[in-house]
Amino acid sequence: MLKIRTYNNISPLGLEKFPRDRYEVASEIQHPDAILLRSFDLHGVEIPATVKAVGRAGAGVNNIPVSEYTQRGVPVFNAPGANANAVKELVLAGMLLAARKICDAWNYAKHLEGDDDSIHHQVEKGKKAFVGFELTGKTLGVLGLGAIGVKVANAAIDLGMNVIGYDPLLTVESAWMLSSKVARASSVDDLISRSDLVTLHVPLGEQTRHLINGPRLGFMKKGAVLLNFSRSPVVDEDAVRAALDSGQLQTYVCDFPGQALLSHAKAIVLPHLGASTHEAEENCAIMVAERVRDFLENGNIRHS
Ligand code: MLT
């Protein structure tokens, strides 16, 4: 009997990939053959010596000490692309929230008081503060053209935007999926200096920590919008705060906020919702469970 320890929030559809006649799957298992988790942070956690594989039901693996496990011969599996649709849709929502000032406008409208005549008067008077801009014809820079970045880029083309992409590690698969209408930037700086909105789709690692920093924010167009559906340390949040304060950035939209920007009036912050759809949770759990099972039963290592 093989044993799988689950840490949190794994869709039952993924767990069903481990047939009960051959697997025991539970959170309290003492000597598991594999670990399956979503956002639980394994850094500093001593995992049992019996663990032969770790699976993350998502794309990012920054909550797992991957190189430490790799040195121990424990492969880490993820679910690349399985939640790309969900993230893409939330990025589109984020662009619209910023462009049409929807959060501030909603906040204004829901606090109106009085009878209908008075509210209508306040609506017409107050709406002047919420004049936005159209995405059509604007330039979106997509930094990172993996499964999510490609979907965002293609969807933005469909919205009538001009799209520029940059990814020094572009795979053949992504290149195939990418619309031919997406222009290519020659560098990060080239991309951000030409874009009205910039969206980040890079994994968090030593090379991408503070990828967007003070000098780079200075290269952006004045009044640009920055969207971060990656991880908060990909940007230097203190520098973003300064750019929002000075008007260099119009809005920062972030799905994984750090403390520095939580309550900033020009930041739209979400509690890590990019992959939080029923469909994405199921897709991720199923994909990673299949990979872990394929490894345990056949020794296959599938990473893409
Ligand atoms: C991801 O890395 O794909 C997401 O963080 C998944 C999640 O929301 O758990």
TrEMBL record:
Q: What class of enzyme is it?
A: oxidoreductase
Asked if the Swiss-Prot or TrEMBL record annotates the protein with the keyword Glycosyltransferase, the reply is no
Instruction: Quote the EC number.
Output: 1.1.1.399, 1.1.1.95
Q: Where are the transmembrane segments?
A: none
**Which keywords does this chain's UniProt record carry?**
NAD, Oxidoreductase
Q: Tell me the domain of life.
A: Bacteria
Catalytic activity, as annotated? (R)-2-hydroxyglutarate + NAD(+) = 2-oxoglutarate + NADH + H(+); (2R)-3-phosphoglycerate + NAD(+) = 3-phosphooxypyruvate + NADH + H(+)
Has UniProt tagged this entry with the keyword Phosphoprotein?
no
Q: Name one GO molecular function term.
A: phosphoglycerate dehydrogenase activity
This protein's pathway: Amino-acid biosynthesis; L-serine biosynthesis; L-serine from 3-phospho-D-glycerate: step 1/3
State the family it belongs to: Belongs to the D-isomer specific 2-hydroxyacid dehydrogenase family.
Which purpose does this protein serve, as stated in its record?
Catalyzes the reversible oxidation of 3-phospho-D-glycerate to 3-phosphonooxypyruvate, the first step of the phosphorylated L-serine biosynthesis pathway. Also catalyzes the reversible oxidation of 2-hydroxyglutarate to 2-oxoglutarate.
UniProt-recorded name of the protein: D-3-phosphoglycerate dehydrogenase
**Species assigned in the record:** Methylomagnum ishizawai
